[in-house]
Specification:
The first copy, chain A, is α/β, with parallel strands linked by helices. Chain A is 36% helix and 24% strand. In chain A, a hairpin with a 6-residue loop joins strand 6 (80-86) and strand 7 (93-99).
């Protein structure tokens, strides 16, 4: 099985109440790729970078099983740059700087070598670009997962709705689910969004876990309780990477496997929050992941009671 | 088995974004008693009411198996009155009025007929009164659960710490856990609070569920997703009532049974949020509770994955 991931590869500068870093590796596709590669290879990356993206990171991605044929390198421009500052609760942040740089020219091209991939992860990007990737695929993947954000709901809602018609799973946060549906109740919001195209809706609530809606079912995966949340940047993308990576490693896509994939995403995201940049998921082993999974079960396994 | 509950029986006036009611029956002990009575009887109530507390409510409580020998009736004073207004998100509220009335004279007396009760639920009250109830019991109950609030941490912290030394389970919300411990991280807060006396700490997070800490274990019970949260007043007390009621109906108190009791509390609290006042839990049947439990498992049961 292989999975195509589309999104940004970038530099971030991050300030938390505890620390501050300048120009560390980030970007949605970077987080997704490292997380997914823990479950499946190859991960086939589609992105764009400038002359300044580190050689060592490219080498590291390759060593983890990430193919980069679909990553355009622009020789005379810088990579996408984002800078943000977290509030004291680590749950909210302000964006300080967004330098699009190479991202202004991004026109994702699916390499021939990626054709036939069975899974597609569309990272948060301009909806037209997400649609272009879907349209370039000669065989429709078994599963298409889409991330997006409120920004595109504000400025490109009709395009976004076109993409929605073509995807299987939509990933948004609670505020975005409310905005997209016009409903305050998440249960009602989900019901409406599930009429727009996706068969599954995942609503991410950060430290408050993630909800999965499909048909009349709701499933909840809580976030793991961490002693310290060091840096939550990329947690949503890491969740997405763990989610689609796990699914890609399985024989079938079923509602049960999708629930399991929520667990995989949750566990990977917990590692991400413990380190700056992608460091939380680049040196994981099956042993470490299994150990964290066991902790997760002890934490979240609901015992039955007979009343 | 029997359970003693101590707390207020009151009138509430509540305004939500959807509706407004004046002088409906409320009070921590009322919510606790109705919830607990779904699992165990008798529930032995200790409280104080004025001349205005409705006869019909007294009759209704009795019919559900609640004993009222420990409820003092003050002939020339009104019952405790609280009024609050919920914000649009239904997660936060402002207190508009607090008329203590009879509560100013509350001096809880344990009737002889309550002696020997194996479970004690100390509702949120002045810590000195909670301590007085513990000290009146000739045989120490098998399990003492204590609720409290930030108000007592502000004005009676030393008394509160005395009570803490004598209880098995403490129930607080996340802000109160942080205030009591001086730690921002809930994991660190719990570790500190567990050195103050209780063997179990439950941190209630409203719509974001509840955490249980004991020794090195953490367990999480998510709140059920409701289509509409009609009125969350009393949800915490209903959780407490379901929690101690379920435990009282079991042969043993063990960490596993305490996890199950969290599920019972969660399920009862979900009913509470669907109606004003105590109406959500006064007409429940085992059948309704079991049906909601089954929904809860479908929602929160974590599937295992092999990585």
């Amino acid at each position: 099985m292989s999975v195509i991931t589309v999104g940004t590869m970038a530099f971030d500068a991050i300030e938390t109440p505890f620390d501050k870093v300048d120009r560390i590796v980030g970007g949605s596709a970077t987080y997704v790729a490292y997380a997914a590669a823990n479950f499946v290879t190859p991960v086939q990356q589609i992105s764009i970078i400038g002359y300044d993206f580190p050689e060592e990171e490219i080498a590291e991605l390759r060593s983890r099983g990430v193919e980069l044929d679909g990553v355009e390198v622009v020789a005379d421009k810088k990579s996408f740059f984002w800078s943000g500052k977290y509030h004291n609760d680590m749950n909210s942040r302000d964006t300080l700087i967004t330098d699009l740089n190479v991202l202004e020219d991004f026109n994702p091209i699916v390499p021939d070598s990626y054709q036939g991939a069975e899974f597609l992860m569309l990272g948060n990007l301009m909806p037209k670009l997400q649609l272009s990737v879907i349209n370039q695929l000669k065989v429709r993947p078994k599963l298409i997962v889409m991330d997006t954000m409120n920004f595109w709901m504000d400025i490109a809602l009709e395009d976004l709705k076109e993409v929605l018609k073509k995807v299987d799973v939509l990933l948004v946060n609670d505020g975005e689910a409310r905005q997209l549906s016009g409903e305050v109740s998440l249960v009602k919001a989900a019901r409406k969004i599930l009429t727009m195209g996706p068969k599954f809706l995942i609503i991410k609530k950060g430290e408050h876990g993630a909800l999965l809606f499909n048909e009349n079912h709701v499933f909840f995966a809580p976030a793991l309780p961490l002693e310290e949340v060091f840096d939550p940047t990329g947690a949503g993308d890491t969740f997405a990477g763990g989610f689609i990576g796990y699914l890609s490693s399985q024989k079938r896509v079923s509602p049960l496997e999708i629930r399991r994939a929520m667990v995989a995403g949750t566990v990977l995201a917990s590692f991400n929050c413990e380190e700056f940049s992608v460091k939380g998921t680049t040196s994981l082993t099956s042993r470490k992941i299994n150990k964290r999974c066991a902790e997760f079960y002890d934490y979240a396994k609901i015992p039955k009671l007979g009343v």
